[in-house]
Amino acid sequence: MSIAQWVEACAAEEIEVEDVIRFDYGDRTFAIYRTENSKYYASDGYCTHEPVHLADGLVMGDVIECPKHNGRFDIPTGAAKRRPVCIALKTYPVKIEEGKVLIQID
Description:
106 residues; mainly beta; Rieske Iron-sulfur Protein; four-stranded antiparallel beta sheet; globular; monooxygenase activity; MocE_2FeS; Naphthalene dioxygenase ferredoxin
């Protein structure tokens, strides 16, 4: 069993409001989001429908739209919101410290 750790993903200012960036750590990839109300979130990087990176998708409020087939996920919860997506995204805790976005990876 692995122990969760906080990992620095990026500077908070690197992500525009209503945007998403890719963050790779080891052999894993994540999507880091900043929603319209400037809250930060993190999820697995690939869509659960096909292995397309969500960093190329469109953030609309609290929703990320996959660039491949336009499936949508709720950013805060990872819940599948529109077909063809039917499996939720795994999400990760996020905190901001000293202007840096940190995600908790297990």
